[in-house]
Structure formats: C-alpha cells, structure tokens
Please model this.
Amino acid sequence: DVKVTQSSRYLVKRTGEKVFLECVQDMDHENMFWYRQDPGLGLRLIYFSYDVKMKEKGDIPEGYSVSREKKERFSLILESASTNQTSMYLCASSFTQGIDNSPLHFGNGTRLTVT
Amino acid sequence: AQKITQTQPGMFVQEKEAVTLDCTYDTSDPSYGLFWYKQPSSGEMIFLIYQGSYDQQNATEGRYSLNFQKARKSANLVISASQLGDSAMYFCAMRDSGGFKTIFGAGTRLFVKA
Model:
C-alpha cells in the first residue's frame, strides 16, 4: 500500500512565523502535491512537483513556497504565516500524469492554526 | 477554465437505501478523467472510483457506480445499499490530459441514518 506521511497532525503557530510542513511518500511516485482544504471550498491546489527540484504553481500559491530535494519528500513552506492560512493541509502523490486512472494518494492532513 | 460543481452541501439517506451525489464539470479538453473520493471524519482521503472521458461504459466498483453523462457534463456517484460507514464527505474531482492538476469540487457531506 502507498503510504504518504505528513509529519504533524496538528500545528499551532504565531503570525509571522516561518512554518514548514513535511510530506514523505514511500512508493517512488514522481508527482507530489500540496492542497489546502477549507469548508465550502473543497480542496485547492497550492503547488505541485513532477520531479526532484521541479515545482509548479497551483491555483493559490501566494504566501507559500515548496521544496523537493529528494523524490520522496515534498515540503510546504509558509514564509510568514498569517491568520488566513489557518486551514487543513493535505499532501498527495501520484504515479503518473494524464488521463490514466492513477488516483491521488493522500496523507492524513495537517491542521494548521495561525494565531 | 476547468471547474467542478457539487450543488448538494449535505444529504441524508436511510440505511440500506441508494443515494445519488451530483457532480457537474466544465472543461474544454476532450480527454479527461473523473474521480470520486471519500473523506471520513478521520480526515483521510479514500479513492473510490474513476471514469475516463472515452470510457463507453459507466464505471462500477462494488456498491459504487458512476452515472456518466458526457453530453451533460455530469458524473454523479451512486451508492447502493447505504451503510452507516458511508457517512462521510464526498468529493468529485477531475484531471485533464494536459497536466498534472486535479481539481476538486466543494464536496457533499452524506449522513446515513439508521
């Protein structure tokens, strides 16, 4: 079974802090993604990566950056946390692109609260 | 721009009955894939079923089936014989042929009553 592990289940940070969310997958997937989930808005893509050191902006990249130094690890960075970044963050990975039936495999999420 | 619309914020169904969760989508890409995911209260996202835009038959996986109407751009999830464990949030999602991005709808929360 594919395992996607997010380092923290819950995080509480102060406004202005630099925050790191870590995600590791163990199935040698090329693609990794960061989404945020908010009630009534579903999941929105922040950033994704299709290879080591490669990254692409998603739909809501402002205020975030990412790092992918190793294939199995994809980090989301909040350079200066703000209260509007309080949310559930979901990491996902997938095997390949395109219209094949390869689904996303998700971690259990990190609920971040910025005070 | 691509878009997924789920118009039912919440749904109730009696145990053992069937329920349909609505999903409409918008894309100009002729090739795309449609997915449904389940999110129980524990928070994990579970893949349920996939439908490709060129698939001739509606997808089925156990108690889950997808009512795919391409001309209407709808991909409704049908859950037969509902169980209490089906109570969860359900998300419709789409990925096009050109990219890596999967976009999601706002979700439908399903409540199964005993």
